[in-house]
Specification:
Distance between the termini: 16 Å
Strand content: under 5%
Largest sheet: none
Order of helices and strands: HH
Number of strands: 0
Length: 63
Amino acid sequence: MPGFWTIATALMLATAILSIVMERRRHNRADIEKVGFMPWNHILIIALVMTAFSAGLAAREFL
């Protein structure tokens, strides 16, 4: 059974992948006037930092 930090790592990684996809989608939009309001680059950076942090804690559970 995966621990709490393993699940947190997976969720943060999924958030990072989602923010990459959404930033790419926003960048390649058809209507230039429809700008987005989500800061996907900032969300990506925060998700990657949290992924690294939770992966470190998840690895500590297995030692």
